[in-house]
């Protein structure tokens, strides 16, 4: 006679609970304890909190997030906005954006917030007002001032939880975190002048505050050394036209320059490639400096001499200032000191 077959245990999941009161009865605690446990509050002891969390997973119970947000007047969402009024063809895949965005996303999500990303072409005067008044965000992080300084100042006068990556000027209303761009431009110029360069070109446009400050710093270095003012050669940050612009500039200036200060690492790396394709040695015939010190700067061949702005520390400072402002505290602008990083190109 064969042994009786034992039926397998039931795989039917436990019924879903409909509300916190019903779940509290299952857990054998009060609704308040459930709420505090699932919010990770330390007032609930660890054993009880872990038991409630396990039961919540088992029963598919998630507190009503919309109700919680209505109660707290918080969305737990931070907006990260990239305004591109000056450079409409630039993409979020730009290495600078991707690097800073990654550090910002890490800091925001580790603090328990969600992130909403927007790439904005400011076609209307009230583009920033529409973002901050949407009711969808607890705060806003702007990557770059673009050519929208006045719009940012206008909104910052009445909207506090906003922090911007960029430059800080005396009397500025909005909170900005960034490097001393003028000093950075001067450091780059001094490096080339120290190598013997006397006819320096700046590859970059000057419609944004950050880049215009870098060019001013280069002018400061040239004036202090008693050499001719640097040439300013408009070079856009849009990758699809950058190489063509650089080649055209080199055709135009010929032997009138003997050194290049690039407004960014990406421009510098592209300039190295154009010069190499023409058989012009970098740095012996044409020293070049970049600006940013992106991870690519050390990986390219030749390795890029550049001005470092600490994007990790900058992102952390932005997020810390934003959360302080969300809590109603003061958070002033932060201006970091740039650092000359010596490698192969200058």
Which helices and strands occur, and which strands form pairs?
Blueprint: H1 20-27, H2 31-38, H3 46-58, H4 65-72, E1 77-83, H5 95-110, E2 114-120, H6 127-132, E3 139-143, H7 149-156, E4 162-165, E5 175-179, H8 181-194, E6 200-203, H9 209-225, E7 231-233, H10 239-253, E8 259-262, H11 265-277, E9 288-289, H12 295-299, E10 306-308, H13 311-326, E11 334-336, E12 339-341
Parallel strand pairs: 1-2, 1-3, 3-4, 4-5, 5-11, 6-7, 6-8, 8-9
Antiparallel strand pairs: 10-12
Helix pairs in contact: 1-2, 5-13, 8-9, 10-11
Protein name: LacI family DNA-binding transcriptional regulator
GO molecular function: DNA binding
Domain HTH lacI-type: 18-72
CATH architecture of the largest domain: 3-Layer(aba) Sandwich
Taking all Cα atoms into account, the compactness measure Rg is: 27 Å
Class of the largest domain in CATH?
Answer: Alpha Beta
Q: Approximately what portion of the residues adopt beta-strand conformation? A: 5-15%
Number of domains: 3
Q: In DSSP terms, counting alpha (H) and pi (I) runs of 4 or more, how many helices?
A: 13
- Supply the helix-strand structural class: alpha/beta
Shape: elongated
What is the chain-wise order of helices and strands? Answer: HHHHEHEHEHEEHEHEHEHEHEHEE
Largest sheet: 6 strands, parallel
What is CATH's topology name of the largest domain? Rossmann fold
Unreliable spans: none
CATH H-level superfamily of the largest domain: Response regulator
Assembly state here? single chain
How many runs of DSSP E, i.e. beta strands? 12
N-C termini distance = 90 Å
Cross-sheet strand order for the largest sheet: 2-1-3-4-5-11
